[in-house]
């Protein structure tokens, strides 16, 4: 239907049926937060400005070429209207009809078809199609669009609709180049005529749009999107100020990575590592700190899909033109695309950390002390990046200076010729580890052992299993495949028959506390040692399991090895012949001492009472004389 008013002709048209379906979906099902409409309109305005800027480079015959490229928003809280205006490329009457009333360009027909095929159950498909303008109907009961194309001969035009069944198109006079959209807000959406509300939304989603955004005359977006600039042109102060803004921080970052890539996706990224890890100090779990943008428009704040969870401490921005600049900002449903983006950004960040670790080991140690836990978490939980993460692990070792850390690569470079395995042992401190019995066999053979101090470390290395085809083996495991000693240890040892008799007797005394008692080939100075027979379960891991399961007796399959050269073992063999009751006490105490060395003694009550019995016998002079 057409209505003539003077020289102007207004034409009322029906929305295509597919557009009606889209409007229903967008308004009722698509967005979880209505304020997203403003982000969509600003995004469209920025696109229009960018298109004009490109057109103006090659075509000087344009309408209003002197107009500044900007976006203005005017709010009227009495009339309850919001007006957004851009000085971009504008639209002709035909383009208004084509872009807003039909589905010729938006791809919406394919969207409707796929929704039908999915019986309207798969809203994941929405993010693939450009229908963002219609989000304005979530808050507006009526929308007017006034537009004037950049083409000098084109006339101004007006598009009006309530978003229900039809729209009206007519001519409009005295319009400058660009597009003005006037929203008459619904009764339950009057808040969007408030200046502070609109400023907050712009700062949250559109702070980095490269064109000026003004609200009632005030410029809102004052922080530059420096990740899109050449890093050689950016000053250190600019980087630091941007970090403080994006991370809500007061200090400077520890690390910064600014990179661009064209394949497999177009990516501009600016990532920061803070100096402090507050999760380490008992604060709540760190939320993801990277925001996802497309052409400087926020798609998702604190996006969970850009980096793996174990990199949640990283702050910054990832901007990819390949992410659809439309509804996927809300739904983030294109899992294949996000997976490619995550692999690209994660891989580049891990390479960066490895480069920094080699270039400045002392600074990397500072990083490791704060964020090493997250790297360990990644090794334990994410097979995809395990090899890259293994290069970033750092530990002390028997050949490192106290407090200095080494990498697994450092260890393998120092390995003995013919050495097949990488050895590690867990203990609360370096001093406790080195005072225990487990290092004796390695010292005697000049083999390096990695020291792990955190309970999680053994889980990490057990999950890693190997590094550069060298198996990771805990030093408290039974049956280690070690080279023979060049010289036998000093001291006479018990004869084979006595040793066999003593180990059998000890197994009888200790019962199911141990699976086996045998002569040790690894002990030098200690009388006995507890060894794990489960190759995947170290003593440290068992201590964790004890605490988690609240089962103080659950120490797994254990073997007791005795040193037949040690004076205590030789005296035990003699005592057994003269006073078996006292020898039993001594045997149980030797076993408990071995448990203490392994860190597995959790209930000392029986041991304390036994020690009192032993002291009472010793102080009473009842112990037999030392055998010759």
Would you spell out the secondary-structure blueprint of this structure?
Elements: E1 2-5, E2 8-14, H1 17-30, H2 36-58, E3 70-76, E4 81-86, H3 93-101, H4 108-117, E5 140-148, E6 157-161, E7 166-171, E8 178-185, H5 195-205, E9 212-215, E10 218-219, H6 236-247, E11 255-261, E12 267-273, E13 289-294, E14 297-300, E15 315-320, H7 328-331, H8 335-359, H9 361-381, H10 386-390, E16 396-397, H11 408-413, E17 421-426, H12 430-435, H13 440-444, E18 449-452, H14 455-464, E19 466-467, E20 470-474, H15 496-510, E21 516-519, E22 528-532, H16 539-549, E23 558-562, H17 567-578, H18 580-598, H19 605-619
Parallel strand pairs: 3-9, 13-15, 17-18, 17-20, 21-23
Antiparallel strand pairs: 1-2, 2-7, 3-4, 4-8, 5-6, 5-8, 6-7, 9-10, 11-12, 12-15, 13-14, 16-18, 19-20, 22-23
Helix pairs in contact: 8-9, 9-14, 14-16, 17-18, 18-19
Structure write-up:
Helices cover 37% and strands 19% of the residues. With 628 residues, the protein is α+β, with helices and mostly antiparallel strands. The chain has 19 helices and 23 strands. The strands form four sheets. It has a ten-stranded mixed beta sheet with strand order 1-2-7-6-5-8-4-3-9-10, covered by helices on one side. A five-stranded mixed beta sheet has the order 11-12-15-13-14. Strands 16-18-17-20-19 form a five-stranded mixed beta sheet.
Could you list some keywords that capture this structure?
628 residues; alpha+beta; single chain; disordered N terminus; 5-stranded mixed sheet; 19 helices; elongated; 19% strand
Structural class: alpha+beta
Total helical elements: 19
Distance between the termini: 122 Å
Mean pLDDT: 84
> What coarse outline follows from CA principal-axis ratios?
elongated
Strand order of the largest sheet: 1-2-7-6-5-8-4-3-9-10
Q: How many strands in all?
A: 23
Helix content, binned percent: 25-40%
Q: Point out poorly predicted stretches.
A: 1-7, 104-108, 118-130, 327-331
Q: What percentage of amino acids are in beta strands?
A: 15-25%
């Amino acid at each position: 239907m057409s209505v003539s008013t003077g020289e102007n002709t207004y034409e009322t048209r029906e929305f295509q049926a597919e557009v009606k379906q889209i409007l229903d979906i967008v308004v009722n099902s698509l967005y979880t937060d209505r304020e997203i409409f403003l982000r969509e309109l600003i995004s469209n305005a920025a696109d229009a400005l960018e298109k004009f800027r490109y057109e103006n480079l090659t075509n000087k015959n344009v309408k209003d070429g002197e107009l500044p490229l900007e976006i203005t928003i005017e709010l009227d809280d009495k009339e309850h209207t919001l007006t957004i205006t851009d000085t971009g490329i504008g639209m002709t009457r035909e383009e208004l009809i084509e872009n807003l009333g039909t589905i010729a360009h938006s791809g919406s027909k394919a969207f409707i078809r796929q929704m039908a095929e999915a019986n309207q159950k798969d809203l994941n498909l929405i993010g693939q199609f450009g229908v963002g303008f219609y989000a304005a109907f979530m808050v507006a009961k009526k929308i007017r669009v006034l537009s004037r194309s950049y083409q000098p001969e084109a006339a101004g035009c007006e598009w009006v609709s309530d978003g229900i069944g039809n729209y009206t198109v007519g001519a409009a006079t005295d319009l400058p180049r660009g597009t003005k959209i006037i929203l008459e807000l619904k009764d339950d959406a009057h808040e969007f005529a408030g200046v502070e509300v609109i400023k907050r939304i712009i700062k949250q989603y559109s702070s980095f749009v490269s064109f000026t955004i003004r609200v009632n005359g005030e410029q809102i977006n004052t922080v530059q999107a420096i990740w899109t600039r050449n890093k050689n042109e950016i000053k250190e102060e600019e980087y630091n100020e941007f970090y403080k803004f994006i991370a809500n921080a007061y200090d400077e970052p520890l690390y910064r990575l600014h990179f661009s890539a064209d394949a497999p996706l177009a990516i501009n990224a600016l990532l920061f590592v803070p100096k402090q890890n507050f999760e380490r100090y008992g604060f709540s779990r760190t939320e993801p700190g990277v925001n996802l943008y497309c052409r400087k428009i926020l798609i998702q704040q604190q996006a969970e899909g850009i980096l793996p969870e174990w990199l949640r401490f990283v702050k910054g921005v990832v901007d990819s033109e390949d992410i659809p600049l439309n509804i996927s900002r809300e739904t983030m449903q294109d899992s294949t695309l996000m997976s490619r983006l995550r692999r690209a950004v994660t891989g580049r960040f891990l390479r960066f950390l490895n480069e920094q670790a080699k270039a400045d080991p002392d600074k990397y140690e500072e990083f490791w002390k704060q964020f090493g836990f997250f790297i360990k978490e990644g090794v334990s939980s994410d097979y995809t990046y395990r090899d890259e993460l293994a290069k970033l692990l750092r530990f002390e070792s028997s050949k490192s200076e106290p407090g200095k850390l080494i990498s697994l690569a450092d260890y393998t470079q120092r390995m003995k010729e013919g050495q097949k395995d990488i050895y590690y042992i867990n203990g609360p401190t370096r001093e406790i580890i080195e005072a225990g019995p487990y290092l004796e066999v390695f010292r005697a053979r000049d083999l390096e052992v990695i020291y792990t101090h955190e309970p999680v470390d053994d889980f990490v290395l057990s999950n890693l299993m190997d590094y550069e085809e060298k198996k990771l083996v805990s030093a408290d495991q039974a049956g280690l495949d070690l080279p023979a000693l060049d010289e036998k240890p000093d001291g006479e040892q018990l004869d084979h028959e006595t040793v066999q008799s003593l180990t059998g007797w000890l197994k009888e005394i200790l019962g199911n506390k141990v699976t086996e008692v045998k002569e040790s080939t690894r002990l030098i100075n200690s009388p006995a040692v507890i060894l794990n027979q489960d190759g995947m379960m170290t003593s440290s891991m068992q201590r964790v399991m004890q605490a988690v399961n609240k089962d103080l007796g659950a120490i797994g399959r254990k073997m007791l090895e005795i040193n037949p050269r040690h004076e205590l073992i030789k005296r035990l063999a003699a005592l057994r012949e003269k006073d078996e009751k006292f020898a039993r006490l001594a045997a149980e105490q030797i076993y408990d001492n071995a448990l203490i060395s392994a860190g597995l003694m959790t209930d000392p009550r029986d041991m304390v009472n036994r020690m009192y019995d032993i002291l009472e016998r010793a102080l009473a002079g009842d112990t037999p004389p030392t055998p010759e």
